[in-house]
Amino acid sequence: MTTPLIERFRDRLPVSPATPVVSLGEGSTPLLRADRLAADAGLRELWLKWEASNPTGSYKDRGMTVAVSKALEGAAEAVICASTGNTAASAAAYATRAGLPALVLTPQGAVSGAKLAQTRMLGATVL
Known about the structure:
3-stranded parallel β-sheet; single chain; 36% helix; alpha/beta
């Protein structure tokens, strides 16, 4: 596993030495050359960050590692969020890693079945 994002950027994040690190190996996602897109835009080169290689397939994991680490530091008893997809899956994954229950509020009919399945599979209660 790579060095956790919190450890790499600790001096720039709202964490302290006492903050426990809840990590799933987020960050360190690869850069991909986008030569055709660069040419279409008249640029010499263009690189895209491939965020789908984060643990839940979303850039939301970068913030969730900090949010759940701070929740654990603050003795939270659960993680709760409102989401239509990516935040729900990320919250569920990081809460599970931290040993905390996750509760996700979603608007009825507004979330893809795949994201609901991922969120439930990761252990969250979905309302």
